[in-house]
Design the sequence.
């Protein structure tokens, strides 16, 4: 039951990750790397948007320091993800290291999208949905690598696919919840920081503002969620 529920919940991510993974594999092979590298990067790094960035870093011969700094900037949001997952991942035992490693934007969205139904083990659900999501990404990346090594593609615009997936996930979360306060805070803080700090530097300030706002409003948001749950049971 846990596996079936995790599979059902992860199907929208599968649709995105197969396509996005293929895009990454095609981009990587267009720079002269084999499908095997696409497989290994998705298996051992599994960083989504950072893997797209890594294609140019590898092709351009970037230094380890430059790669490390770029990785920190691109994935800095995971610092805030991690803080918010402390309670949810407590008590997951030996699975915790993998849950931490496999926490992507889309997996975070699924894990935080609400309480699981009665009869579903929440901790097992976290593990299976994380595993399924990485499996989709690895399959897509490897398939893209194989296709890219066999057929020549015009890769212009493929890197926008990650942005498209983020938009789809946001819309799905908006439609699945009645209370849109968190989403509005995220959009508002992002736009504000974009105007103030510019496109190259807004991400970390936006995450700080969002985290602070949601922490401050945590009690009120939880109360609204409980009230909506009670109305749904009536």
Sequence:
């Amino acid at each position: 039951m846990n596996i079936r529920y995790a599979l059902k919940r992860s199907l929208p991510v599968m649709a995105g990750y197969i396509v996005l993974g293929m895009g990454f594999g095609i981009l990587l092979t267009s720079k002269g790397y084999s499908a095997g590298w696409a497989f290994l990067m998705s298996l051992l790094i599994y960083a989504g948007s950072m893997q797209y960035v890594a294609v140019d870093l590898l092709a351009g011969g970037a230094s380890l320091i430059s790669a490390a700094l770029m990785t920190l900037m691109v994935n800095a949001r995971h610092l805030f993800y991690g803080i918010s997952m402390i309670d949810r991942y407590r008590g997951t035992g030996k699975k915790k290291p993998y849950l931490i490693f496999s926490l992507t934007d889309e997996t975070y969205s699924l894990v935080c999208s609400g309480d699981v139904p009665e009869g579903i083990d929440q901790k097992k659900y976290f593990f299976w949905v994380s595993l399924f999501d990485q499996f989709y990404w690895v399959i897509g990346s490897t398939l893209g690598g194989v296709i890219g090594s066999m057929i020549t593609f015009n890769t212009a615009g493929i890197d926008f696919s990650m942005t498209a997936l983020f938009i789809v996930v946001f819309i799905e979360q908006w439609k699945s919840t009645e209370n849109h306060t968190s989403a509005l805070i995220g959009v508002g803080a992002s736009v504000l920081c974009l105007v103030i700090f510019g496109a190259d530097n807004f991400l970390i300030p936006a995450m700080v503002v969002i985290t602070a706002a949601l922490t401050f409003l945590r009690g009120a948001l939880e109360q609204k969620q409980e009230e909506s749950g009670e109305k749904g049971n009536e």
Observations:
- The chain has a mean pLDDT of 82.
- The first helix runs from residue 2 to 30.
- The chain has twelve helices and no strands.
